[in-house]
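Bench notes, afternoon.
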Amino acid sequence: MGWGMFVLYLQPIEIIGHLTTAPVARAETPEDLIKAIIRDQVEPYQDGKYIKYYRKGSPLEWFHRPSDPTNHDSYITDVGDIEEWLEAAAHEWEQRFMTIPEVGKMHLYAVDRKKH
């Protein structure tokens, strides 16, 4: 099994009143994402019409803080590893296409044209 991946999802500050989140960063462990949040977090500051919570230039700059920072599962998602994704894709492919009859193996009603 390969290395896993965790993705940090936060709400963009441009979106007000919606619970839409976007992938912001990825890491091999949730702890690395938490460290990035802590490292880039600053006192809230006004930038034009927006209030920002992360340092200027940070990948997190244009995102809100998590609504519940103690509930990591609400903003950090385990997306698995490449082998899990490949296995799931192979299974989906088999379910979608291998259930379709194969032309060379179908029992079709054949018309013997030589007799007509």
